Amino acid sequence: MSLAKTSLASASRGRPVFTRIRQEAENLISHDLSIAALVTPAVLEQPSLEAAVIYRVASRLGDTTISIEQIRRTYTDIVADDASIGAAFEADILAFLDRDPSCKRLIEPLLYFKGFQALATHRLAHALWNQGRYDFGLYLQSRSSEVFQTDIHPAAKIGKGIFLDHATGLVVGSTAVIEDDVSLLQDVTLGGTGKEAGDRHPKIRHGVLIGAGAKVLGNIEVGHCARIATGSVVLHPVPPKTTVAGVPAQVVGDAGCAEPARSMDQILAAKMARG
């Protein structure tokens, strides 16, 4: 066994998340043997959560240009040297279980949810970008766009505990920052305002909820635990713990709760909407 694979095998010792995922895999097969061809190699034959995520993502991204095995080897080597990536995988899976009412098991994001798989792809692309392997990172961005319908630049900085609900149409620019425990729905754009160079994309602080179809444009800050309503166009900084709505977006009240990203409450109260 290679040093990288040994590191991955030891990564899951004492970690209950992967233990539970393995139990769910066994239960799944016991109820529907026809799914074993997916579940056995993706989970039961893997030594750790990291290895399982890498296997699943590589199987989705590999093609005749860059093979599944090449992506697996590259990601395995990177994860073996950076324990924070494995911790992010775990936090992201838990975020899906916590915030998505349709998600009943930890195994579901790993096997089926393209939002989680797109995040995992970005984590590899970002690591490659930081190593100066820009073209490999851009290739993975391109493949993710094809396979998952998300377009996240490999230079973008993304924290852990991220929930991409549905994920289709998500666009994240190269100088964007997304801190921990943020939730974004489908068709969200974190973009620039034109052809300006330099630092030109939004900074999303921890705990923020961004509703479906919202556009946040320019080098502006969305303060921690803020809430951006569905369909809004945000052109100015958003104060912490507030709700903004409209085109262009304006503050319409407080955030409605302590942790908007976890509550996933997108309904504006009547008095807030009137304000």
In short:
This protein has helices spanning 3-11, 16-31, 36-44, 49-61, 68-80, 83-99, 107-111, 114-130, 134-148, 260-263, 270-274; strands at residues 151-152, 157-158, 163-164, 171-172, 177-178, 183-184, 189-191, 203-204, 209-210, 215-217, 221-222, 227-228, 233-234, 242-245, 250-254. The chain has 275 residues and is of the alpha/beta class.
Task: Describe the overall structure.
Belongs to the transferase hexapeptide repeat family. The protein is about 45% helix and about 15% strand. The chain is an alpha/beta fold and about 280 residues long. The chain has two domains: about 140 residues, Orthogonal Bundle (serine acetyltransferase, domain 1); about 100 residues, UDP N-Acetylglucosamine Acyltransferase, domain 1. The strands form three sheets. The protein has a six-stranded mixed β-sheet. Strands 1-4-7-10-13 form a five-stranded parallel β-sheet.
Task: List the main descriptive attributes of the protein structure presented here.
11 helices, 45% helix, globular, disordered N terminus, serine acetyltransferase, domain 1, 275 residues, UDP N-Acetylglucosamine Acyltransferase, domain 1, five-stranded parallel β-sheet, alpha/beta
Q: Strands of the largest sheet, in order across it?
A: 3-6-9-12-14-15
Identify the CATH architecture of the largest domain: Orthogonal Bundle
CATH topology of the largest domain: serine acetyltransferase, domain 1
Q: Major beta sheet, specifics?
A: 6 strands, mixed
Instruction: Assign a percent range to the helix content.
Output: 40-55%
Number of helices: 11
